[in-house]
Amino acid sequence: MCKECGCGLGGTPQILGGHGNAEAATSATSADSAPGPGPGHEHQAYPAHEHPAHPHSHASGDPHTDAAHTVAVQRSLLEKNQRLAERNRGFFRAKGWLVLNIMSSPGAGKTTLIEQTARGLRGRLRCGVVVGDLATDLDAARLRAAGVPVVQVATGTVCHLDADMVRRAVAQLNTDGLDLLIIENVGNLVCPADFDLGEDLRVVLLSVTEGEDKPLKYPPLFHSAHVALITKCDLAEAAQFNRAAALAHLQRVSHHARIFEVSARTGAGMSAWLEFLQHEHRRIRNQPL
Amino acid sequence: MHEVGLMTEAIRIALEEAQARGARRITALRLRVGTLSGVVPEALAFAFDLVTARTAAEGARLEVERVPAVWWCRDCEQEFGGDDPWPACPHCGGLKAELRQGRELEIASMDLV
């Protein structure tokens, strides 16, 4: 097929309506009975179709041997990450770990929540953490100071963690006796929505200081969450947080998500969250492999 | 968003498929992009020029087909359309809709020589 005008579809050199080729008259007749292009092909369906100039040039001798052909591909741009995420998931399940992917905007309180979750679960579940940030290992240092095994992934310019970064980070983590792997994603409410890391639960944070309408502004990420935590509840009054509106927005966009209201700083609401994690860990561990 | 990263992956896949078919060059690439994928076609076009430079896809034409969103209402079990990212069902008013189509990010086809 000619790549610019589409003529020759089906392998029959269709020359109708003034390509200036001597074969035009004869081939027009034979083409009608030939197993050529279907009725949708313009050149055949509309013999009056003007195509006089043939304005393009052909590099090779035969005008139509160098033509482009269309091939169907049908492959997802996320397939590589998806494949690696499924590999992670199989590895995590074989290990019996509950794996959380924690996502929020920058400053919603991911690190403090993780720190207090690990402390609160001490003696019940052993936690390890993978932290993603564009730069610095400040968050990792905080968690390390709290006695939590942690590996930092500096993503450079990348705005989200992907399954391969997590795989490489986990290989560096001290996973002896681990029960709960917490992945702290890059602070970003857009990109992490598309990247499965192999987690069991996608956890999104909404802090009272950032406004009730975040779920409406960033629906893909909130919609993908299994769990939504409203954080910094100790600041709700000072921030004039409209709790009813926030819950309504969350229930609308993340209608399948479990919702917790916590303050990692004061500990309010944390016991329900920790019990939920223990319950989920039992559920994962009891699943047949 | 991460259009450059996505386009890098698109070209990686396209070059792999082209090579497997013994093609010399990719002259057109057609992507299907859901209206709720979060991907901006203009940013994809920008990334395309960047990523195809000095590859067998350099100078190729990029065509982006936008795939409209289709929701399925869990309450009344009917489908409906619309690019509202948190829609109410137009049939029953329910808010428990699941997205059936509209987050596509895929290569549909390409032209090879």
Shape of chain A: globular
How many E-type strands of chain B? 6
Please state the CA-atom Rg of chain A, rounded to the nearest Å. Answer: 29 Å
Biggest β-sheet description of chain B: 3 strands, mixed
**What about the largest sheet of chain A?**
7 strands, parallel
- Strand content range of chain A: 15-25%
Tell me the distance between the termini of chain A.
52 Å
Q: How many H/I helices of chain A?
A: 10
| Unreliable segments of 5+ consecutive residues of chain A | 1-54, 58-64
Helix content of chain A: 25-40%
What is the H/E string of chain A? Answer: HHEHEHEHEHEEHHEHEH
Overall SS class of chain B: alpha+beta
Q: Report the strand count of chain A.
A: 8
Enumerate how many helices of chain B there are, as a single number. Answer: 2
Report the end-to-end length of chain B measured between terminal Cα atoms.
Answer: 32 Å
Mean residue pLDDT of chain B? 92
Strand content of chain B: 25-35%
Rg result of chain B: 17 Å
Percentage of residues assigned to helices of chain B: 25-40%
Give the SSE order of chain B as H and E letters: HEHEEEEE
Written description of the protein model:
The complex is a heterodimer of chains A (289) and B (113). Chain A has 10 helices and 8 strands. Chain A has 289 residues and is α/β, with parallel strands linked by helices. A 7-stranded parallel beta sheet of chain A has the order 4-3-5-2-6-7-8, with helices on both faces. In chain A, helix 3 runs parallel beside helix 6. The radius of gyration of chain A is 29 Å and the shape is globular. Residues 1-54 and 58-64 of chain A have low confidence and may be disordered. In chain B, 27% of the residues lie in helices and 32% in strands. With 113 residues, chain B is α+β, with helices and mostly antiparallel strands. In chain B, strand 1, helix 2 and strand 2 form a beta-alpha-beta unit. The model of chain B has no long low-confidence stretch (mean pLDDT 92). In chain B, helix 1 (3-20) crosses helix 2 (41-52). Chain B has helices at 3-20, 41-52; strands at residues 26-34, 61-67, 70-73, 79-81, 97-101, 105-112. The interface between A and B is medium-sized, with 32 and 32 residues.
